[in-house]
Amino acid sequence: MDNNFCVVYSTSTRPKRHFHAVFSLASRLLIQIRMNTSPAPTNTTNDVSSPGQAESLASIVDYILSRFHEPLRRDLPGLVENARQVEAQAATSPLAPVGLTAHLEQIRLAVESHLAKEEQILFPLIVAGRGRNALMPIRVMMTEHDDHTENLRRTRELTHEFALPSDASAECRALYQDLQHLEDELGKHIELENKVLFPRALEGER
After folding, report:
1. Does 13 have pLDDT greater than 50?
2. Torsion sign, CA atoms 110, 113, 119, 122
3. Is 22 exposed, middle or buried, given 0-12, 13-18 or 19+ CB atoms closer than 10 A?
4. Whether residue 81 has pLDDT greater than 50
5. How far apart are CA 84 and CA 106, in angstroms?
6. Average per-residue pLDDT in the chain?
7. What's the pTM value of the predicted model, to 2 decimals?
């Protein structure tokens, strides 16, 4: 596990200048988040991906766990196996998704590691109202969010923007539909954390 997740600051062991440095860094990160994202409004539509600012952080964490974490753990292994089958079927096609299986396996490992870090370290800090102490975990999570976004871009590249061969099998059509769903769900997951959960946690809400 990333060493940044083991950082816990104690007033009895850290000099004041260290706290000033940490506070300054947290402030800069919060400003950066606000500059890069507009505040998410209270959800007044049927968009279940956006609990909004009116919810407590504990409620948002519970929502993220059930709405995103559980389905990701359930679905990613199947995507890898389906890709293996489709890649073999389409091996001779100009639109064959060469390398897709290995790429999705890397995504699975990266996402599962990411979920574990959030569940074991970051989310408990946030729910306890100690988000201000979670500067480094949040920075790591946001960096990994960027990595996930890049991996999704690479998935589109390997599938030729999800272009189906003229003789595409039912398995290929289903896989590409599932991959587009994965892209949509990961995007909503990342947006909710980056725009709502993390900024509020850094302000010490709970």
Report:
1. no
2. negative
3. middle
4. yes
5. 13
6. 84
7. 0.77
